[in-house]
Amino acid sequence: MKAKKSLLILALSGLLTGQLHAQEKAITNTGESPFAIQNAVNMGDVSWTKGFWAERTSVCYERMVPHLWDVYTSADISHAYRNFEIAAGLEEGEHKGPSFHDGDFYKTLEAVCALYAQTKDERLLQMIDEVTPVIAKSQREDGYIYTKATIDQRNSGENIEFQDRLSFEAYNIGHLMTAGCIHYRVTGNNNLLNIAIKAADYLYGFYKKSNPTLARNAICPSHYMGTIELYRTTKDPKYLELAQHLIDIKGEIEDGTDDNQDRIPFRQQNKAMGHAVRASYLYAGVTDLVTEIQDTTLSNRLFAIWDDVVKHKMYITGGLGSLYDGTSPDGTSYNPADVQKIHQAFGRDYQLPNLTAHNETCANIGNMLWNWRMATLTGDAKYIDVLELALYNSVLSGISLDGDKFLYTNPLSYSSNLPFQQRWSKKRVPYISLSNCCPPNVVRTIAEVSSYAYSVSDDAVWVNLFGGNVLDTEYKGRKIKISQESNYPWDGVASFVVEELPANYALKLRIPGWAEEAEITHNNKKVNFQLEKGYAKLAGSFKKGDRIILRLPMQVTFMEANPLVEEARNEVAVMRGPVVYCLEKEDIPADLDLFNLKVKTSVKFEPVQETVMGQSIVFLKGNAYTDNTEQWNSLYRKVTAEDQKEVAIRLVPYFAWGNRTFGDMAVWLPRKN
């Protein structure tokens, strides 16, 4: 046994001190995952050159990450880093902030790493190097790391680890594992990874000896994704074993809740239930697991739950978690012990309110994380379609255009006349004091978008996202270099020039589900193509300098909801490409009520490009109609003679609402026949 252990240590030592090979630096390292159809390219192998994501990445580098770093290292604002200093014995005081503050800081570290992969700015590494020794010093000898428990335990003398169902030990450690893997992949330095390994070893021992009820005290399971990435990084099979165990114990709990997705064993679930962030993180982690092991009882659950989400529970913006508070199961029992209050709940099928929509930014990011993994598992572009939908709408809406103000919730409508105060601000703020989990999550997502742009496999390069960039990578020793020019999502043309591509490699271009009559040319000759799971496969040998142009029609589209979505009945939403639009108060005549306006689907809306806060934005210019100009002063009123007033309006991309001025807003607009 000792000999085997020594060999394992030597193997891991060689892995973690040796040279990282191609694909081992990917955001999800599925290069050796037996059931992955496509694989991410190495972080840093895609560089944005011009256009939408070049602009967003520039703001991320210049404003988003510096702002976050100032917030989390300033004890006067967030106390997140100060908590590590106190836990390490370097400062005195009490823990302050939410119990998931450690995870917020780890996500910030991950954002810094992702930016470094693209910029190679050594100052970013210096930031991480300054804080890593303090994080290491805050960790117990047995690997347990959680500043709240360490500080509280020192002050009270009581053992409180994993005693609180609503605590976030495992969630924090999950983000530590992910950050440690990403840091190692982009730098080759294992100092943060070693902290994560030590913490994962503690979790492995804890879950081995704890009973199911105690073990379930680990809400918001980021540690499922983290554990699998640690397995992919170290090749240590015990982390894969731990991930399987985490799923299995969900079926052994007698007093489970939908809030934590364990009222029903996961292997029996067919519907999305409970807290949307915790659910989407769980689904992403399970998808990671089935990419490593063949388990149809798990994968079939994922397919069924995904269908339930996109057919019944997802907003047109890709947002998840419609209700501030819901009840489960379905609120139909008369026994108070049976009816559970669920925060950030999916709600019933078609229960998608607009003014009171929750749609926490983290849930929308969770939707992205899950769909990225489903695409990796299946090679099906429909999952990238959902990823893109959430990314351009309900994820980007969580951060201001200038990069330093944030939303926790993302409603589809806002009214200044709403006669009650909602729980979370609808105006973006620099720091969300009660729950600042979303800002570092959205910033790390923007920093990592380039990692989702392309995938590779043994015989193809997969184009997932469009924008001006250069892909310069290797796959299994073969060089791949492709440049892309595109003003997407404002324009539907993407032009690719092949610099290097292995012989007989195919190019797979995603044709979004909304795109009809897409056209592809190869060296100015039209190409006939067939779709394979949403990708146009261009086969044959490509030569250096070959140009492939994809043209996606970017018509303005009016969307309607299933009639069972009560709040959107007889209303339309406007989309252009992947971008959902909304109407803001400042884009209508000042004397009119936004909620009195109606639109005709026969009216043309024309794109107009402008610059807002340094970012290129395409507005849609058109007309709307008002039937009654009286102000509402009662719940109901008589229908009066139609005024039929036509007014000029502009629609703004939903993600940009509230940036110019703050006021009334609506995605869904009444339809006028």
What's the structural blueprint in terms of helices and strands?
Layout: H1 2-17, E1 39-40, E2 46-50, H2 52-73, H3 80-87, H4 101-119, H5 122-138, H6 147-156, H7 169-187, H8 191-209, H9 212-215, H10 222-234, H11 237-248, H12 276-292, H13 296-313, E3 323-328, E4 340-345, H14 361-378, H15 381-395, E5 413-414, H16 438-448, E6 454-457, E7 460-463, E8 468-475, E9 478-486, E10 493-500, E11 506-510, E12 519-522, E13 525-526, E14 531-532, E15 535-538, E16 547-551, E17 556-559, E18 571-576, E19 579-584, E20 597-598, E21 606-612, E22 615-626, E23 645-653, E24 665-666, E25 669-670
N- to C-terminal distance: 78 Å
The largest sheet, given as strand count, sense and whether it forms a barrel, is:
10 strands, antiparallel
Total number of strands: 25
**Alpha plus pi helix count:** 16
Query: Helix fraction?
Result: 25-40%
Summarize the structure.
The protein is α+β, with helices and mostly antiparallel strands.
